[in-house]
Amino acid sequence: MWSRIKDMLLQGWQLLAKPSVHFSLGFLTLGGFIAGVIFWGGFNTALEAANTEEFCISCHEMRENVYVELQETIHWSNRSGVRATCSDCHVPHEWTYKIARKMQASKEVWGKIFGTIDTREKFLDKRRELAEHEWARLKKNDSLECRNCHQFESMDFTRQSERASEQHSSALANGEKTCIDCHKGIAHHLPDMSGVPGWE
User: Quick check: helix, strand or coil at residue 119?
Assistant: First the structure.
């Protein structure tokens, strides 16, 4: 029996080591193409599944903390009925940026494994650090996720409050500020900002 298993393994290895001896180049090319399509389809399906709200709130850390806060904001319920989900604000829509963001977010798996924020107290202790990471990311990419829905060029400044109109038109004109500079805490509660200049 062992010799038969050994023979089968040896035949399998020979087939893998020199496939062109056993199969034509056309067959190998077609097989590689089909395998690539299946891999790509599976990869994209998994990627999109990881962008759903159900996936994001499947862990209690998100469901019981920031998700509850989101439900209190205009991004959850508003006069137009358009609701932002977690991935709308935290994952870029363009494929390359999305992949880069997913690679960054893979660190969250370690956080889950080691229980970094598995209680409300731990979450509140790390809240400012987590928020500052997200604010820095949005600042660096010019609030790309915000601008998927909100564009200065499409804003009717006459329908905004005087202060908002002034700030938005100034930001449009000089390009020095981005959404996150003024809109921290727009979808989640702010962390304790004591000691931060401008927040006291």
Answer: coil
